[in-house]
Amino acid sequence: MHTRRDMVRLGAAALLGGLLGPVLVGEAPAEARRTGYPQPRRWGTAMPGIVTAFPARGRQIALTFDACAGGYDRALIAVLRRHRIPAVLFLNAHWIDAHPRETRALARDPLFTIGNHGTRHVPLSVTGRSAYGIAGTASPAGAATEVSRNHTKIARLTGRAPRWFRTGTAHYDDVAVRIVAEHGETPVGFTVNADAGGTESVAGVEAKLRAARPGSIVLAHMNRPGSGTAAALAVILPRMRAAGWEFVSLDRVVGDRGPIPELGSSDG
């Protein structure tokens, strides 16, 4: 579990990464090349194969929430239920192990879709690339395990295999993006980082949501009870709806994943 300082850094840097898009990376270790995958050429939170927004019809917006580890923000879930707001809930294996009953209950609620937030909550890499000081998976096999173990856990516990994946820190290389797709899941990024890992103030969360544009995918957190996220949503969601915003699920607005991303090109 990250410290408050870590999560502030994570939120700010992730937003910057999302704005700047992927960066090209250098020569990969031989381990990554021995597996039949090419060396990674991109690294970041946004690149081909990652869903970071959707084509909106009018003022549509999609909410997503990460549960990395730690607590359960029941107040936040209560706000979503009270206002009938759909969302994708990305649950990490550590959080599921601590909250199995809550996981099953959330999965039964038709408002929510359970997404895969990884097994160890680390960046998804085939070379051990780090984000915010957190070392990523170090090989294609490691990346595959990060996806597959929690995929299996969610499927066994809820009876439904997850369709969506967001890795810890939201950072991937392009080979890892392909590996996610090969496991039948679609990587999801974000357009708006609403709460900086659950450390943002109420006013800060409200301001970020007010600034969102149609087609945005909002990233916030549901594992930090007492943070400003639930209080902000209780205020801003009904106001946005009254102003003509429609809250939609990714299941509704993002179609089936297309072909598995091609690798080896450096074009963005």
Task: Give a concise summary.
The chain has ten helices and 13 strands.
What do you see in this structure?
By secondary structure, the protein is an alpha/beta fold. The protein has one domain: Glycoside hydrolase/deacetylase (TIM Barrel), CATH 3.20.20. The protein has 10 helices and 13 strands. The strands form 4 sheets. Strands 3, 4, 5, 11, 12 and 13 form a 6-stranded parallel β-sheet that branches. A hairpin with a 2-residue loop joins strand 6 and strand 7. The two termini are 33 Å apart. The relative contact order is 0.22. The N terminus and C terminus are likely disordered.
What is the number of independent domains? 1
Any idea what the CATH architecture is?
A: Alpha-Beta Barrel
What's the order of the H and E elements? Answer: HEHEEHEHHEEEHEEHEEHEHEH
Strand-residue proportion: 15-25%
**In CATH, what is the class?**
Alpha Beta
Residue runs with pLDDT of under 50 for 5 or more positions: 1-34, 258-268
The CATH fourth-level homologous superfamily: Glycoside hydrolase/deacetylase
Estimate the helix proportion, in percent. Answer: 25-40%
CATH topology: TIM Barrel
Please tell me what the overall shape is: globular
Total helices: the number is 10
- Name the assembly state: single chain
| Secondary structure: number of strands | 13
Mean pLDDT: 87
Task: Measure the end-to-end span.
Answer: 33 Å
What does the largest sheet look like? Answer: 6 strands, parallel
User: What class do helices, strands and sheet pairing give?
Assistant: alpha/beta
Gyration radius over CA: 17 Å
